[in-house]
Design goal:
Aminopeptidase, about 30% helix, ten-stranded mixed beta sheet, single chain
Length: about 280
C-alpha cells in the first residue's frame, strides 16, 4: 500500500485546530467557532493526553504534571494546536505550532531552555545557528516558528497518524504565510526520523552540524531540527498540498476575548461526535 493510499483512508478522522488568542484567522478557514470555553476545554484535554503519554514514556514525572494530569507549558497559550480526533471525539494525537513574527530572538524561544543550550561546548553554537535561521526567515519575508508538544497515543504510533500530523504542521504554516522554523524532537518512537523524512534537517553553523544530545529532564536522546514550510521533502510535497486544502475545512476553535467594538456572537457547536470525556463542544 502506498503512503498516499494509506493517508487517504484516514481522512474520515477529524482534524481540529485551536487558534491562539488574539491572532488573525485566515479567511480561508471556513469553519471558525468563537468559543473561549470550548477552546479551553480542548486545550485542557490536549494537555491531559500529552501528559499521560509523556508520563507513560518516562519523559516526565507525576510532579511535573498538574493535579489533574496535564502537561502544561507556557508556549501552549500563544500557539496553534493541531489535534487528531477519532470517531468517538477522543484526542489521538497533537502538535503545537508557534508562529512568531516581528522582532524574534533566541531568548524568546523554548529551545533556550534545552539542555543543548546549557552545554558549554554547544550552547553558543546552538544560539548562533538559531539566530541565523531567524535572519533567514526575515530575509525571505517569513515568520519564524517552533514546533513542539508532539504526542501520539500508543495504538496510533504504527499508523500514518503521526506522519499526517507532522505534515499538517507544514500545511498550517503555509496557510499562515510560510515560515522557517525549528523543532526539538525526541528520538523516542522514531519522532525525529519522521520529521527528517518530511523535510527536517540538522541545524548547522560555521560548517558544524549540531549533534543529538541526551536530555536528562525528558530522559531521552533528542535533536534540534530546522525546516522550511516551502520545501518539504519531495516525497511528501503533494500530500502537504492536499492537506493544505483539507485544513481549510477543519474546525478552528478561537479563544476570542470580548471587546467593546466587537458585536456579540453566539458560539456554534462543532459537529464532532460525542465524547464521554469531553462532552459536546458548544
Amino acid at each position: 500500500m502506498t503512503l498516499s493510499q494509506s493517508l487517504g483512508e484516514r481522512v474520515r478522522n477529524e482534524l481540529v485546530l485551536l487558534a491562539p488568542p488574539g491572532c488573525s484567522i485566515p479567511e480561508s478557514f471556513t469553519r471558525r467557532y468563537d468559543d473561549r470555553n470550548g477552546h479551553a476545554r480542548w486545550l485542557r484535554e490536549t494537555q491531559r493526553v500529552r501528559g499521560s503519554i509523556y508520563l507513560a514514556d518516562g519523559a516526565v514525572q507525576d510532579s511535573q504534571l498538574t493535579p489533574d494530569g496535564r502537561h502544561v507549558q507556557h508556549a501552549d497559550y500563544d500557539s496553534w494546536h493541531l489535534l487528531a480526533v477519532d470517531g468517538n471525539g477522543e484526542v489521538q494525537g497533537c502538535a503545537r505550532y508557534r508562529h512568531l513574527t516581528g522582532n524574534v530572538g533566541f531568548d524568546d524561544l523554548g529551545v533556550r531552555e534545552s539542555w543543548l543550550a546549557r552545554c558549554d561546548r554547544w550552547g553558543a553554537t546552538l544560539r548562533a545557528a538559531v539566530e541565523s535561521e531567524i535572519v533567514r526567515a526575515k530575509r525571505h519575508g517569513k515568520a519564524f516558528s517552533e514546533v513542539g508538544g508532539w504526542a501520539i497515543v500508543p495504538e496510533k504510533r504504527c499508523t500514518t497518524e503521526a506522519l499526517r500530523i507532522a505534515m499538517a504542521t507544514y500545511s498550517l504554516a503555509r496557510i499562515l504565510g510560510g515560515c522557517v522554523g525549528i523543532s526539538t524532537a525526541t528520538e523516542r518512537h522514531r519522532s525525529s526520523s519522521i520529521l527528517r523524512r518530511i523535510g527536517g534537517r540538522s541545524l548547522e553553523y560555521g560548517g558544524a552540524h549540531l549533534p543529538s544530545y541526551y536530555d536528562p529532564q525528558y530522559r531521552c536522546q533528542m535533536e534540534v531540527l530546522r525546516f522550511d514550510s516551502s520545501s518539504p521533502d519531495a516525497s511528501c510535497s503533494r500530500l502537504v498540498d492536499q492537506l493544505s486544502a483539507r485544513l481549510a475545512a477543519v474546525a478552528v476553535m478561537v479563544a476570542w476575548e470580548p471587546a467593546m467594538s466587537r458585536p456579540a456572537q453566539t458560539p456554534q457547536p462543532i459537529p464532532l461526535p460525542f465524547s464521554p470525556r469531553l462532552g459536546w463542544v458548544a
